[in-house]
Amino acid sequence: MKKFIFPLGVLAALVMLASISFFWWGENSKPASLDAAFQDFLVVRGRGASQIGEALYQEGLIRSPLAFKAYVQVSSKAAKIQAGQFRISPSFPLVKVVDTLTKPPSELWVTIPEGLRREEIVERFIKGIEVKESEIPTFREQFLDESLGQEGYLFPDTYLFPRTATASTIVKRMRSTFELRAKELEDAISSSSLSLDETIALASIIERETKTDDERAVVAGILLNRLEIGMGLQVDATVQYAVATANCGAATECNWWPVLTRDDLSINSPFNSYRLRGLPPSPIASPGLSSLKAAVSPEETDYLYYLHDADGGIHYAETLAEHNENVRKYLGK
Length: 333
Description:
Helix content is 47%, strand content 8%.
């Protein structure tokens, strides 16, 4: 009979452990409270199960972050949790909380990168907040109407909007975000020789013409040098804007930043900085904060020319002869 003592002891221990686990799960999977009111809970993109569980616990929506993590991992639901804002009640049991987080959120994240024009931005929102197919034409038209004259002032950022957000609401939010971020540069803008509109126009060119933060201030200095001596800006981005505006019209899918041909450089447009001197009449895209900072705090330089090689590296020159040599050396032309 002794040979059965050890296995029976192990079995008893396992039964006890299972009982404790069952009791622990039963207690920690219950609703956090009887309060039936709903709360807005935000899942930030990139957060893991541990961080989400801790946030739910801190906001009084679950009893145990450990129980949350264990459940989403065992049930393979961790990867199904979506980023966005959710309506959750403390009266939800843990299983229902997790189920809510794996369903479409009430609000969605939409990222608008730097350097887009209005026609590109609206398409990002159509996709981002999942506008219904039947409502897309109206939404697009309203967005473009509401944002008319605000090119460059729709701040590129990551936004959280409900699926029901109107085009008008989105445009106002983007414009107010711009005004809030621009306050950081108020003193620099007021002491600049450029007006606010000119500063934003310059920043939009910098955004389209540069690839890294390090080169933005230098390119800003180069462009201001050209303006100071009455030289044409001669930047491809402004001509791309002009060509796309002329060719795309009301198209919803278009190459808004086309590769330019020699003929394009002679397009009759106030945005053609190869034919006309000075800044374009308005911004050509939405600049980010680093481009805005570069526009108001340019680096003093003697350079007048720049170009990017095939690998994205930038090369500067003080004279046209030096620039032509860079063209030959780095672009093989």
